[in-house]
Write a structure and sequence with these properties.
Elements: E1 2-3, E2 12-13, H1 16-22, H2 27-47, H3 56-95
Antiparallel strand pairs: 1-2
Helix pairs in contact: 2-3
Length: 97
């Protein structure tokens, strides 16, 4: 794993194997991420009840919270893709033995 060029957002160059490891979550981790999504969704519901009368601060908080949900959903989506790829590889290896 090698850090990419330094910036205010740090990213890492991952090998395919490291990419797989980065998104292999256990059931407890997935539940924790889902709990974060649920908490953010509850916050959105409470903010957007009077969405036509939101202050600038409430609008910023709403946008920020929606962004959190999008990021967390992306993590879960990547985890699903990795899990499916691992299962497909295992099935393929099992079929060729």
């Amino acid at each position: 794993m090698k850090a990419a060029a330094m910036s205010s957002f740090i990213s890492f160059e991952l090998s395919p194997a490291e990419e797989i490891e980065a998104y292999k979550y256990n059931d407890c981790q997935i539940a924790g991420i889902q709990n974060l999504i649920a908490a953010a969704a509850e916050e959105i519901v409470s903010i957007s009840i009077n969405s036509d009368q939101l202050s600038l601060e409430e609008q910023k908080k709403l946008a920020y919270t929606k962004g959190q949900i999008a990021i967390l959903k992306t993590l879960l989506s990547r985890a699903d893709v990795i899990k499916e790829a691992i299962e497909a590889a295992q099935d393929q290896n099992g079929n060729h033995q």
